[in-house]
Specification:
The protein is an alpha/beta fold. It has a domain of 265 residues: Rossmann fold (3-Layer(aba) Sandwich), CATH 3.40.50. 46% of the residues lie in helices and 12% in strands. A nine-stranded mixed β-sheet has the order 1-2-3-5-4-6-7-8-9. It is globular, with a radius of gyration of 23 Å. The chain starts with a helix and ends in a 5-residue tail after the last helix. 41% of the residues are buried. It comes from Zophobas morio. InterPro entries: AB_hydrolase_fold, Epox_hydrolase-like, Epoxide_hydro_N, Epoxide_hydrolase.
Length: 457
């Protein structure tokens, strides 16, 4: 072997070893200031908690009815196409007709007001939240639990879950007191007045919200953006988080990507079982499916205000944009069904409740900005993804979730993973779709979290 070849091997080995060592280094925890996000003067923040009721004016409802009644004719779908090009306009017409003629907002408004709701200012943002305490806890210990939704969801996703969590479960010696906020810029929560409020910064906002409400230690749970935000909270504030449960645990790092690629050569190195292997490999299939579903993400991460104009002006467009996600994100095979499978798990009224929250608050543009504020160099440079979570953690994995990750990758981030569950049914909107299954899993996970730390009992 020549000297040049030997030297090249030595240099190559040193570079590989250096790269691996750098990848394995834990970044420092960033020091995040309690930035003032609101439009008002910081010296005038009203920190009082105020009761809140959803009260939409007749003028807003009349305007909606006018827009639905005078919408332009929908473009017919191509022959033999269901939802492969996006939502089929035959189905959309049926939903819009239901919205215009049968959906009764005043009845739904009463439904949405069934739980106690409040607003309070945190870092200049007037945040809306639901706060439900168990009515008859008996001898059960009451544990605070923060629930966070994502996009294109809202607090509406949790309405069937809340009663299950706030009622003592058989054989359990604890029950939950739940706090369910609307994310800043979503629904009835105020949006940031200046750039920079990404998922990491939102974790600070929600930590401060819980402090404002008097909770020093608590459990957290979320999916979609909510799952990412609770992951950041557990990373940055382990002294306050008793445990974290997510139905979208996701590790995004160079090392996790390297492991994923390595598994494509020999899957048993990475995957937990054959079923999981079929969801991850071949990588070309997985990435093509993600590309098929993630066009909206690129748009919202780059031009949220542009796409927001059309969606905020047209209820038909807003419904199409949001409801398409409830087809393919609940089950990707539903795109091949004429009715999109929507009524297999939801009702039109339930789905339109969620659409209405975006419509009556005009919040679709500000909700979309979370993508542009989170997928950028400033957010990545904080290094939060590379900091391990040490608090007791749990991951609920639903088979139709957009992306699946095996234990070999999850443990890279979650160093104290006490519970992982694999369901036979369910997709991205677990709280909305399968509230009983998710509630049971949260109870099981928290029981294990309490057992893992005697100070929690």
């Amino acid at each position: 072997m020549g000297v040049v070849v030997k030297l090249s091997l030595v240099v190559g080995t040193i570079l590989i070893a250096y790269t691996i060592s750098k990848l394995c280094q834990t970044p420092p925890v960033p020091k995040l200031e309690a930035t003032w996000w609101g439009p008002r003067d910081a010296s005038k923040e009203d920190t009082s908690i105020k009761p809140f009721k959803i009260q939409v004016s007749d003028a807003v409802l009349q305007d909606l009815q006018h827009r639905l009644s005078n919408a332009r004719t929908l473009t017919p779908p191509l022959e033999g196409v269901q939802h492969q090009y996006g939502i089929n306009t035959k189905l959309l017409k049926n939903i819009l007709d239901y919205w215009r003629t049968k959906y009764n907002w005043r009845e739904r408004e009463k439904f949405l007001n069934q739980f106690p709701q409040y607003t309070v200012s945190v870092q200049g943002l007037r945040l809306h939240y639901i706060h439900v305490k168990p009515t008859n806890p008996g001898k059960a210990k009451v544990l605070p639990l923060l629930l966070l939704h994502g996009w294109p969801g809202s607090v509406r996703e949790f309405y069937d879950l809340i009663p299950l969590l706030t009622k003592p479960a058989s054989g359990r010696d604890f029950v939950f007191e739940v706090i369910v906020p609307s994310l800043p810029g979503y629904g009835f929560s105020e949006a940031a007045a200046r750039p920079g409020l990404g998922a990491v910064e939102m974790s600070v906002v929600f930590k401060n919200l819980m402090n404002r409400l008097g909770f020093e230690k608590y459990y957290i749970q979320g999916g979609d953006w909510g799952g990412i935000i609770v992951q950041h909270m557990a990373t940055l504030f382990p002294e306050q988080i008793l445990g974290v449960h997510a139905n979208m645990c996701f590790v995004n790092s160079v090392l996790s990507t390297a492991k994923l690629i390595l598994g494509s050569v020999y899957p048993p190195l990475i995957v937990d079982n054959k079923e999981q292997e079929s969801k991850l490999y071949p990588l070309s299939t997985m990435f093509s499916n993600l590309l098929l579903e993630m066009g909206y993400m690129h748009l919202q991460a780059t031009k949220p205000d542009t796409v927001g104009v059309g969606l905020n002006d047209s209820p038909s467009g807003l419904a199409a944009y949001i409801l398409e996600k409830f087809i393919t994100w609940t089950n990707e095979e539903w795109k091949n069904l004429e009715d999109g499978g929507l009524t297999k798990k939801f009702s039109y009224a339930d789905l339109l409740d969620n659409v209405m929250i975006y419509w009556v608050t005009g919040s679709i543009t500000t909700s979309a900005r979370l993508y542009s504020e989170s997928f950028n160099i400033a957010q990545l440079s904080l290094g939060v993804e590379g900091i391990p979570i040490t608090v007791p953690s749990a991951c609920a994995r639903f088979p139709n979730e957009l992306a699946q990750q095996p234990m070999a990758i999850l443990k890279e981030k979650y160093h104290n993973l006490v519970h992982v569950s694999d369901f036979k049914d369910g997709g991205h909107f677990a709280a909305f779709e399968l509230p009983k299954a998710l509630a049971d899993d949260i109870f099981i996970a928290v029981e294990k979290m309490r057992s893992s730390n005697s100070t929690q009992k």
